[in-house]
Amino acid sequence: MADGGGSVLVLTNSLDVTADVVLRVLAGRGVPVVRFDPGADLHSGASLTAAYGAGGQRGVLSTPSRALDLNRVRSVWVRRASPYEGPPQLGAQERRFAAAQCLWGAGGVLASLPGAHYVNHPWANRAAEYKPAQLAVARRHGLSVPDTLVTNELRAAREFAAGQAGGVVYKPLWNTAYEVDGLPHQVWVRQVRAGELTAGVEVCPHMFQAKVDKAFDVRLTVVGGRLFAIRIDSPDLDWRRRQDLMECTPVAVPGQVAGAVVGFLGELGLVYGAFDFAVSRAGEWYFLECNPNGQWAWQPPETTGAIAQAIADQLQRGPDL
Predict the structure, then answer these.
(1) 136 occurs within a structural domain
(2) What is the pTM of this model?
(3) Range of the domain at 66
(4) φ, ψ at 94 (rounded to 5°)
(5) In a domain, 303, yes or no
(6) Rounded to 5 degrees, what are φ and ψ at 40?
């Protein structure tokens, strides 16, 4: 394993136990790591300074325990940093202003470190989150996708739902925070019928897909061209709903699918991606979505350990790729 030198900068919150799995691997290899949560740490003793000019680009990230030369960062792991919300002691308007300055200031500095290898680059992550765009990229790389309609037109939605012999599912285009009676509420993927659709469809775009007559689901995690796939057997349409009831076992990835997902990540500039597929009873793999920052440590220990090693390999090697 080549060693790129310098520190690995991990952008995540203090409670991210998934990051801890990889940090333990890096510690065992003697790779220096700085863990930083810009949305929280900049309001609790950390500081960030960057300079640009005729003398080049330089910068320092200072925390209560260390100072990091931003020109000596080999890799940046963009994990689960806290949102930029501003110092809590400020008034509402001042807090919104401070939060925006942190986002565009600190976010811009940390996204442009010279020579650093990003897993993934935050701008690539954001661009890759759009589900309709994912479907377009998946098709370009030869992946099968379920017939899909994105619309805010009620008539079009009803016609699409009525025209799918195997049924239709609704899935949100973004995992937006939602509450019912003051309690967090998850919007799961669920089957819908044409007659159930109301004028609420016209409020915003909705995504409807032909229901796959699936035998099982697959979570395919890809790290730098290395593939880790598990078969998921669940009694639910959306296996995330009751994960205690699902069973996970390793599964082989067809060669055409393997090449397509690597090409998918390459087009979007991603090193890491968590792909979800529905595999039909006829054996066809249908692309559902790719989460560019999806969780992975919930998988069987052997798979989780292998993914952790692969991510650590990427971070340790840095830009020497």
Answers:
(1) no
(2) 0.92
(3) 7-120
(4) -65, -35
(5) no
(6) -115, -45
